[in-house]
Design goal:
25% strand, alpha+beta, 1 helix
Length: 69
């Protein structure tokens, strides 16, 4: 799902637990870090873009059967 809008290699060989990167999700600047081996990713976006980020996240997740909101 993240690969649809974040131009980073998130494969475990390239991005491991504890790694942090600044990137964009769709058109929104984000800070991304991998919290554990699951892998669990945490994303931080500017407050002013919360609505746009939430929409992008929901639309990206929908293809995989996830319902956000």
């Amino acid at each position: 799902m993240l690969a649809k809008g974040i131009p980073l290699d998130l494969h475990p060989r390239a991005f491991a637990p504890g790694d942090v990167a600044l990137s964009v999700a769709s058109h929104i600047a984000v800070q991304l870090w991998q919290a554990n081996d699951a892998p669990t990713f945490r994303l931080l976006a500017p407050r002013g873009y919360a609505g746009s980020f939430r929409r992008w996240l929901g639309e990206s997740a929908a293809e995989f059967g996830c319902v956000y909101g």
